[in-house]
Amino acid sequence: MSISIPEIKLNDGLTLPVIGLGTYKLNGNEGANSISGAIDTGYRLIDTAYIYENEGTVGKAVQRASVPREELRITSKLPGRYHSYDKAVTTIQESLYRANLDYYDLYLIHWPNPKQDIYVEAWQALIDAKKWGLIRSIGVCNFLPEHMERLEKETGIKPSINQIELHPFFNQEEQRIWHHENNIKTESWSPLARASEVLQNETIRSIAVNHDKTISQVILRWHYQLGAISIPKSSSPERQLENISIFDFSLSDKEMGRIAELTRPDGRINDQDPAIYEEF
Ligand SMILES: NC(=O)c1ccc[n+]([C@@H]2O[C@H](COP(=O)([O-])OP(=O)(O)OC[C@H]3O[C@@H](n4cnc5c(N)ncnc54)[C@H](OP(=O)(O)O)[C@@H]3O)[C@@H](O)[C@H]2O)c1
């Protein structure tokens, strides 16, 4: 059974499905089978990164996939250690070689690394790689409004998407509003909070029982109704199917409000505040 996932349009015209597959920790042959199985189930958006060391695995899954390349949306990300312009250009090429792809649909700067402070150089490399046809859409992850304002001020181009930590314990309301006002799509990483205590939460459980759905399905429906693209990772075919079977019910405003109340200032999984945290 293959499920059809609704799509949204980015500010540069590229369309993306509203749910994709996270691939952190899906590596090697097993990972490639898991990803190509997800494509058979209906996933079209696949999220990898240079530092996950599985761009090759994703490329293998694309080769094995039952659907043509042009129906897929493959994302990768530039690591912090390669933000300088020349290194960023080479890394984008290396990312493509690893995956054996001619282009990425979406390429993101993985972290702003504000102390290092050369993310604008990295952004210029993404802008040029897009012009050269290596990338169809360019965006960022973990950028704060001040970082994105600077990109636009210094290059004239703003990101199509910002991928940020977002789940019921850390719902990023202010940042989501800012994205909406600036026509930048929000993409949620760790949308299930890495299957931590959120999957035991009593409030969400009671909502799930009402709809005859699982807690994960309620959370992923909540992301969808917030207008965010989510990229849950699962290695299991059953859970992959479960996670995209969310288009046959809806949450009421009251239920959305009850989930909104679960957020907390210290709700980040690993305390990775992009204003200070740096990743290389
Ligand atoms: N840009 C960034 O800085 C950044 C940071 C972190 C992550 N990401 C991206 O976001 C993706 C998703 O985040 P994540 O992998 O950290 O966490 P996640 O998707 O919130 O959770 C993944 C965990 O949930 C389990 N799971 C999935 N579906 C389930 C279900 N229906 N019921 C119960 N358990 C379920 C998975 O186990 P099984 O595999 O066993 O099903 C796995 O342990 C990553 O894979 C990566 O692509 C980006």
UniProtKB/TrEMBL annotation:
Pfam families: Aldo_ket_red. Substrate binds at H110. The keyword Glycosyltransferase does not apply. Coiled coil: none annotated. One of its GO terms (molecular function) is oxidoreductase activity, acting on the CH-OH group of donors, NAD or NADP as acceptor. It comes from the Bacteria. PROSITE patterns: ALDOKETO_REDUCTASE_1, ALDOKETO_REDUCTASE_2, ALDOKETO_REDUCTASE_3. The record marks K77 as: Lowers pKa of active site Tyr. The active site is at Y52. Keywords: NADP, Oxidoreductase. Signal peptide: none annotated. Residues 19-262 form the NADP-dependent oxidoreductase domain. Belongs to the aldo/keto reductase family. This is Aldo/keto reductase.
